[in-house]
Design brief:
The complex is a heterodimer of chains A (351) and B (621). Chain A has 351 residues and is of the alpha/beta class. Chain A has twelve helices and 13 strands. In chain A, 30% of the residues lie in helices and 19% in strands. Chain B is an alpha/beta fold and 621 residues long. In chain B, strand 10, helix 8 and strand 11 form a beta-alpha-beta unit. The chains are: A alpha/beta (351), B alpha/beta (621).
Chain lengths: 351, 621
Amino acid sequence: MTYLAKPRLHHPELPKNKLGYTHRDYEGAVSTLCAGCGHDSISGAIIQAFFELELPPHRVAKLSGIGCSSKTPTYFLGNSHGFNSVHGRMPSVLTGANLANRDLIYLGVSGDGDSASIGLGQFAHALRRGVNMVYIVENNGVYGLTKGQFSATADRGSKSKRGAVNNDQPIDLVLLALQLGASFVARSFSGDKAQLVPLVKAAVLHRGAAFIDVISPCVAFNNHAGSTKSYDFVREHNQAVNRLDFMPTHSEITADYAPGSLQEVAQHDGSVLRLRKVHDDYNPGDRIAAINYLLQRDAAGEIVTGLLYVQPDATDLHAALNTVDTPLNALREAELVPGAAALEKFNASLR
Amino acid sequence: MQGGSGMSKVSPIRAVNDFVVKFANVNGSGSASANLLFAKAILRMGVPVAPRNIFPSNIQGLPTWFEVRVNEAGWRGRRGGVDLMVAMNPQTWDEDLKEIEPGGYLFYDSTKALPASKFRDDVNAIGMPLTAICNREYSDARQRQLFKNIIYVGALSTLLEIEPETIAELIGEQYKGKEALLKPNVQAMHMGRAYAENNLDWPLGVRVRRTNAVGDRIFIEGNSAAALGCVYGGATVCAWYPITPSSSMAEAFARHCKRFRTDPASSKARYASVQAEDELASIGMVIGASWNGARAFTCTSGPGISLMQEFIGLAYFAEIPAVIFDVQRGSPSTGMPTRTQQADLLSCAYASHGDTKHVLIFPQDPKEAFEFAALSFDLADRLQTPVFVMMDLDIGMQEWLCDPLAWDSRRHHDRGKVMSFQDLESGTEFGRYLDVDGDGIAYHTYPGPHPSRASYFTRGTTKDRYAHYTEEGATYVDNMQRLLRKLETAKQYLPEPVRRKAGAPTRFGAIYFGSTAPVMDETLAALESQGVHLDTLRLRAFPFHDAVCDFISEHEQVFVVEQNRDAQMRSLLINELVIDPGKLIPVLHYDGTPITARFILREIGEKLAMFNVTPLRKVAP
């Protein structure tokens, strides 16, 4: 969607990360989404997260389905390979890509129509397989590209811009992800970068299926009174359970938070998640408690955000399949072809 | 002989190493392995066999048949008709009885007396009280059932003069290391022999005589051979969803990989096989893995192909290699899931919405299934497009006698046009959809090789030569034309058709493909022996090679023999080569059973008669 080219020149003193990349090196083409779209804020958070993580952009593969959210991979990490696949089927394409090369970072971007409506099956199965990925749903409860129809995450009773009322029970992807065995589950809000950036960073370094549901108001079709996915509604009902600070392996751990409200979670690679707890009774290591808490707060009309569940020692699909450490796409012919002599032996067993 | 109505009025069939035995059993009774033992024993005596398991879509209880064509000449197709019926299923007795050739034999369980009306006076009935014997010898119900099968194999070995040592040898191989099972099986076989020797007239008019007609040929199912072809072809990712008759291919791939692709040092797997949640996911995984540089495939059948349509269009348009094995079965809908057909030609050739066209290859037997499986990955990589390997249930799930599988050690995988780090670093221009070589095939990169020069965006929407999104009509047309050029290029890489000239010049030709081929060999021999000449061409790939067009234009009339109702291959020929439809005469077999030489002889005979060709001898129905 590059009708507009970004200027190639930029300030010579832009801060660089350890790899020598500037923020600009993590950007993509100019967005063609509507001005004020929540999705653009999420793209911004992704750019920020990868810049801060100091990861080389070309070692990331970004995949998406179809829809407004699925267009966004064009707008970040321009030096990453991107794949805008089929509506609702990003998870299977990502799973296949991950099987081929376990060494890249996989970022799946999807929307509520893409993941909760047409693609609910693939959403579920990719999570239950434990594909090592970050799966972000940019959730606005509405179909943008086809002009404002409800998606499956629209709340019962919420009103469309044209006044139609949604009568169907909404699908809560966070609850589903918890139930399906995702080992990192979070919810955030596109308007809350302070919360979202650390969540993305932590999810990238998490090994296993990491899912982030990001409520992302649609300025064109779902940002009016009566909508439960509007900026105003979400800001009024947002109940953060914690604030995450993310410490990569090489960062010095400094104690600048009040003890008692701080919880540290070490991930498999040694990175540390520091949770500043807002609600002291919330434990992100307990899947059942997380589900109960979410159901209770939902009944009270609150949208719970933050890191909702993490299993720091999770494993992934490659571990389950016991695949070799070398990426499958890098195996040499000698490692793949059994050869003529082996075939002779095989023939002999069939006589 | 005893029981039933005994000797027939017509003279009993006499044949050595050339007859058909059919076993009628109840599904789930353990008969299949005993029947395969019977077939393998004959094979070990140097006599070619063509066995076919004719099974229902059921786990237990429904009728099932196992047909063994014993044929020293080595014809591998189904013959039609039965010389010896082993009738072990009362449910299907009446139907089974009808199938026996006049003068043929009926072997049955005579424990319970049957009225004379249940027999035919032109069939020789051979009764043996199998149930009574088993009830006397075994107390366990399961043993009674399983050993009954081995006992009848023993009795048949006496009647047909199959060597007991050979059967014992096979049982020994099957139960190697399981002595507790080995001994009672051999005993049961001898129990059957002893009964036959003492109570029945033996040998029968049909019998087996040791010879040396098998040579070094092997006995293998197409699904197993194709799966091994995937191993040799370098496939590392298999994504599949269970569907008859293709499931055994995915299972065979895992089995072969366990043997050939386990890293000796770490015991880890050099492959990944994932049972997906449906066919949409399985093809999605194949596309994702191929996009990322692994060789990947899925195996499915007609209903799975239907589900994959949208993704196949994406792979075609975004130019991603993908290998799809379609083990065809009776269609449409759930159709006849355990029966064979060649009825997915159109749904594969033009799979997906919009203007699409795909590469299909047609193996004729397990050996070619192995070769084409390995080849398909080279084709998919070279052409950056989906490749369909068109198998069918008859090739995939039946054991075939075929030449040993072979692999040329000098052969290397062709990964096609991939830009490496060095290519990119040296500044070679990279346009993902730029036709640098004029053959319609552009260069691509796998994700990750270069910090700034490798990346591009893969999408199903329209794009320009540098992979930038565009809705510009002229750019779209330019790209669509290149895709056509690419398919033109494809022809030089695809297996060429196999032409065979008749013994004398002829105005008539026949085109066929896939599992019809072995049957056509037999048909042609029969025609030649009757002085009827027919040039033939065996198709091995789509889009069609120029030789196909030449063959048709060199003949006045061309029969197109295929196993579907709508003459789908004929439609493809007419459509792609702009052939006068009147020139192509359809010969269609689609009742779910494999096509037979008898059928083709009758059809072609009747049609040739209309053109005043030497009348054929009447052939059996």
